[in-house]
């Protein structure tokens, strides 16, 4: 039982706020994603419920809605139109974001879900 208290304490200390934190994608569709500086990140801004981010090379922007019950709806998203390597992954990334219905948090991790199914895992950037 004491171990659980330590886990909860760690999670509380390392938890980051949903809005205002830059989140780095580390898993998409059950597959690990190697974090790369400036790629596959999102930030939910508290002001105006806006989302900003970067895919493989394109900047993303859009709206989001959330409530106190961990629901999360993102989109529609707009993106710049540059072509670069990794466009398939970027397409999967944006489709995943627009399919999100809920989120959960585990310490410094943000888990995005679609109707109860884990779609992506993000890690808070320092």
Automatic annotation (TrEMBL):
Pfam families recorded: META (PF03724)
Gene3D superfamilies (UniProt xref): 2.40.128.270
Residue ranges of every copy of the DUF306 domain listed in the record: 17-120
Organism of this sequence: Alistipes shahii WAL 8301
Task: Report the domain of life of the source organism.
Answer: Bacteria
Keywords associated with the record: Stress response
Q: What's the protein name?
A: Heat shock protein
